[in-house]
Amino acid sequence: MKMKKRSFLAGTAMALGLAATGAWAQDDKVKVGFVYVGPINDGGWTQHHHESALKMVETIGADKVDMVYQENVAEGPDSERAMTQMALEGADLIFTTSFGYMDPTINVAAKFPNVKFEHATGYKTAPNVSAYSARFYEGRAVMGTIAGRMTKSNIIGYIASVPIPEVVRGINSSYIHAKKVNPDVQFKVIWLYTWMDPAKEADAARTLIEQGADVIFQHTDSTAPLAAARDAGNVIGFGQAGDMIEYAPSPRVSSIIDNWEPYYTSRVKAVMDGTWESHNVWEGINTGMVGIGEITSAVPAEVKAEAEALQASIESGEYHPFTGPLKKQDGSDWLAEGETADDGTLAGMNFYVEGIDAELPN
Amino acid sequence: MDLSAINPILLLASLMVAATAVMIAALGELIVERAGVLNLGVEGMMITGAIIGFAAAVHSGSPAVGFVAAAVGGAGLSLLFALLTQVALANQVASGLALTLFGLGLSSLIGQGYVGIKPPVIPKLNIPLLSDIPVLGPILFRHDMVVYFGILLVVLVWLFLKYTRAGLVLRAVGENHEAAHALGYKVVRIRVLAIMFGGACAGVGGAYVSLVRVPQWTEGMTAGVGWIALALVVFASWKPWRVLLGAYLFGGVTVLQLNLQAAGIAIPVEYLSMSPYLITIIVLVIMSNRRSASPASLGKTFHAAQ
C-alpha cells in the first residue's frame, strides 16, 4: 500500500516533470526511460541500474539523450501505469529493471508498438520488447568458493528474496561451489518474499547467525545483512548487486557487481542508429556485465587465488558453473559427467540441486 | 530439518527486540484513538522519526539525543495532522493518509546524505547479577534501554487510562466529545495533546528501527510497520496490555518463522511468511469478546458550535 501511494505521488511529480521537459525537448534527442523497483540510493540493485544509466548518458552525451526515471515502482499493475506514462510522454526506449515487470512490460509494449522496451531478468520478448539479464550465477560460483573455504562452522546462511529462477540459480551455484571445496558445508535458506526490507533482512541475518552460520549470502538489496554480520563479528558476507565497499575488508570480503552501463549504451545507440532489434541476451563475467568486487585482505591469499582462478576460467568460457555430474534435490539425474546446463533449463530453474536440505517454495 | 539448531533463549531475546518498534508506535496510536482521533499517518511519522533520530544520533554521537529528536520530530509532524483535523476540521482518514505520504517523501529528502553511514552503538544494559541468571538473564536483562522503555510505557499508558483523572477525561472525549465539551473539557486541546503523544511514540518507534534493529538508514525502511501498529490497536481492542501481547506475538512469530525456515522445517515457506499476521489477528480477535470496544467518537469531527 505504502509503495503504491508513494509512487503515485512520484508519478504525479514525474508527469509534471515530463510535461515540462517534453515541451522543451528537441526531437532529435532520444528519450530513454528507466523504471526502478527500489529507491535510487538503496546501495544495491536499483542504485547500480541508476548509476549505469547516468554513465550511459555521460558516454553518449547529455545533448543527445534525455533520461527520465521513476523509482519505487511496485511490481504489478502499478508498473504498467508508470511505463504507460513514460511512453505517452514520448520515450523512445524504456528499460524496466525488475523481474516482476515482465508481464506489465509485454502488456504496455503491445499498446505502443513504436516504443522499444527492454526488460531485465525476465524471459518474455516481443517484436518491440527485448529481454536482458546477467549470469549472476557465475559470480555466485566465485562467492561460493570463498564461502566454502572461509566457513569454520560449515553452516552458510542464505537470505533469499522471491522464489524465481534467478534466485534459485544463485542458491544452487553458491552451494555447488561451496560444497566442491568443502564437502561438509550445509546451507540454511530463508525466504523473505521481498527485494528490500532492511528490518526483515537484518532479522533474517541475525537468525542465521544465531543458528550457527558464519557466512551470509544475500539476494536482497539493502546492506542490512552486512550490518548485522559486522555486529556479530567473525561473520562474513558479500556485496550484492553493488560493491557495498563501505563494509570492507570485513564482513564484506567480495561482491557481485552489476554493470549495466555497456549494455545500456549499446542499446541506446542502437535506437539512435535505427538498428535496434528485439533479442534475449544473457551476459556474464566475460562481457563485464557481472563484475567481481575486490577480494579483501580478510580472505587468505590461497583462497583468493583459487577464487580468481575460477573467475578466470568462467570468463574464458573454459568452465561452466553448472557442469555435471549433478543431481536434482530429489536424487534424480540432471547433468551427466562433463555435461553443462543449457540456457533454457537455467532460465526456468525451479529445483534445488542434491544436497540442499530445504524446501523450495513454489 | 534440525530443530535443535534453534536456541529458544536467543529466540525469546530477539522476540523482544523485534516487537519493540511496533509496540511503542501502537501505544501512541492507542492514546490518539482513545481520544477519538483516527490518525492513519503512523507510518509517515515513524519513518520521519527514523531519519530524524538517525541524523541526530549521527551528529551528536549520542543515541539518546537521537531518540529525543525522533520523538520531537514525530510530534512535530503530527502537529500538521492536528492542525488539519482539529483546527481546519479536515477529514481524518484523508489527512492521515496524506501525512504518511508526506512523511515518506520528507524522510527520503532528509535522508539523502545518510545512506551508508553507521550510527553510534546503543549499549546493551547488562544489569549486573540479573543478567547472569541462567536462561532468564539473556532473555530479559540484556537488552538496550528502549526495550524496557517500551514495557514501562505499556504500564504508564495503562495506569494513565485506568487510574488518573486525566485519563478519564481523555476517554470521555473519545467516547462522547459533545458531552465532554458540555462538561467544560477542552476537546480540541486534549486531542491535540493526544495526537502529539502519538506522533512522539511513532517517532521513537521509527528511530528504534533505524538506530537499533537494522541499524542504518535506508529509504522506506519502516516498510509498513506503521500500518501493523494501526491494525494492532484495533485488534487489541484499544487496551494497552493487549497491545503488548499482540506486539510480542507478532514479533515472536516473525522471529520464529525465520528460525523455522533456517532450520528447514517442512512447512511451506508461504504459510510461514504469512503466519505472523494471521496468528496475531486470530488470537486478538478471539480475545476481544466485546464487539463495540471502539471509542464511540472515533474518527468523528468535532466543532464546538455544533
Automatic annotation (TrEMBL), chain B:
Keywords: Cell membrane, Membrane, Transmembrane, Transmembrane helix. The chain crosses the membrane at residues 6-28, 40-58, 64-84, 96-115, 145-161, 192-211, 217-236, 243-265, 271-288. It is a multi-pass membrane protein. It is found in: Cell membrane. The keyword Cell membrane applies. The keyword Transmembrane helix applies. Pfam families: BPD_transp_2. GO terms for molecular function: transmembrane transporter activity. GO terms for cellular component: plasma membrane. It comes from the Bacteria. This is ABC transporter permease.
